[in-house]
């Protein structure tokens, strides 16, 4: 109990935070509360969707070493506190585990993350040391081997090669076989072609708000209505439906929040950064300004299309791969990498069905997948420049 109290500032967030937004072709996803897993993970959902923390530190503590903010840090000494939860999510994703596989949850006291009672936690510490050792001694310190390399989503790694699985649809890099007429050679040219393809900077700047109306189709086959409001330069509100009814998530340029049924929380830490990023209205015409180290890396096949692969970083921990169709110039795929000391967590977004809205092209179908969700948004109507009051994006008073 004392521990819980000492975390007075702790904000319990739904881990099911979906951070989806559009600045035109630009959408980012975190996790969607709509995405309720049935099968074997239902236990986890009971806990995580209601209770699990996304954050245990205040914003001023985010940069402090983890051991100064948390109680029982042994292997992650020196890691900025704000990176601890993303790191836990990486472990979750790699092992197909859940917080409760390694941490004690007490019905009355709640989570006791600092406790070392569970063997999984102790084992995980050893594994982290082993992995760091392998990379240091056998791969010149490069992060070649991660938890996922061995675990592949299982708590107990397979020892027998698997039966044939359908291949994942990833990029094909067999560049020799790809011929691109009028091939572009610099990232500047690729971005310029993209901006021209979606209608040009001027047409873009004439738009100051967008309303997206449509449906979300989840991996469980459930289709629910969704509306997204966006206002320049950085406001966003998503209203959708999850297991418990209507939910909304907003960012008013300063404060991020999530509301589902009776529950309402401020969004902070890593999730707030993702939300801020998603709220950038003019991202599509400010790539070169927003990204650092933007570079053209490869020509690859994305499904059936040929695309230029561009890499860049938005911040110290967030990097991207962007795929622009070599013919149309349009952005067809984006992969976001959230870096942790153990490896990256990725979220992939595919854009399709671009249509003209007031002089700019916007994708009407957006497919987003992360390690624990997979959904497609289909918009039947996207309208520009509707009057949207600023306070629509504010956190509702309780
Ligand atoms: C496979 C095991 C494993 C899983 C799964 C896991 N963790 Fe951890 N967690 C650890 C280990 C190991 C540490 C201690 C790290 C260290 O010693 O530096 C830790 C530490 C923590 C701490 C710091 C506690 C303190 O005060 O010292 C928090 C908070 C935490 N985890 C949250 C989570 C959350 C939330 C999840 C689910 C998203 C999760 N963990 C999933 C293994 C795990
Ligand atoms: C080189 C391969 C390899 C890597 C890399 C690896 N593991 Fe493991 N891990 C194993 C094997 C094999 C087992 C099962 C045998 C055992 O339990 O000793 C295991 C077991 C575990 C278990 C116990 C599972 C249970 O049944 O309770 C945990 C927890 C775990 N690993 C966490 C991690 C984490 C976290 C990482 C990344 C930091 C990681 N492992 C990286 C090979 C690996």
Number of strands: 15
The CATH architecture of the largest domain is Clam
Query: What is the helical fraction, as a range of percent?
Result: 10-25%
Shape: globular
Strand % is 25-35%
Order of helices and strands: HHHHHEEHHHHEEEEEEHHEEEEEEE
Classified in CATH, the superfamily of the largest domain is: Lipoprotein localisation LolA/LolB/LppX
Give a quick account of the main beta sheet: strands, pairing sense, barrel closure.
13 strands, antiparallel
Radius of gyration: 21 Å
Number of structural units classed as domains: 2
What ions, cofactors and ligands are bound?
Answer: heme C
Outline the secondary-structure elements.
Layout: H1 2-6, H2 42-48, H3 66-69, H4 84-95, H5 99-102, E1 104-106, E2 110-112, H6 119-138, H7 147-151, H8 187-197, H9 201-205, E3 209-218, E4 223-231, E5 235-242, E6 245-251, E7 256-260, E8 263-267, H10 269-279, H11 287-290, E9 292-302, E10 305-313, E11 318-325, E12 331-340, E13 343-357, E14 360-370, E15 373-384
Antiparallel strand pairs: 1-2, 3-4, 3-15, 4-5, 5-6, 6-7, 7-8, 9-10, 10-11, 11-12, 12-13, 13-14, 14-15
This protein binds heme C (2 copies).
